[in-house]
Structure prediction request, 121 residues.
Amino acid sequence: MTESARADAVSTFRGVLPLDRERLSKVRVPVDAVCCGCQRVTVKSPLVRDPRSVGSFQHACKACGSVQWHNTTDRLDGITSPQVFVRAAILELADAAREGVEPDPEVLRDGVRAAESEGVA
Ligand SMILES: [Zn+2]
Prediction:
């Protein structure tokens, strides 16, 4: 299954690889995140280069009235732009090729699906 997911992704994203990570623009990834200042969980859309792992980020908190560190608790894939899935798949392909590991077929499939439905590849 991984092989066919990889073949689909390579064919969909050919021309994008090899990847220059430093030149990637950032994409917004909607997540639920907990504020380290007030512990409230709200929806945030931090700008990241690698949407596969949003982790911790600094963002304005309305309750605190200042910029605070936030920790991601959940990804909100239902409201995520297709571009984010495409970016994740391209990075997954590039990392797997560079590190000689198996790419995550789910990440590749989601990216191919997003690219085909939205024409964002
Ligand atoms: Zn806060």
Summary: The mean pLDDT is 92.
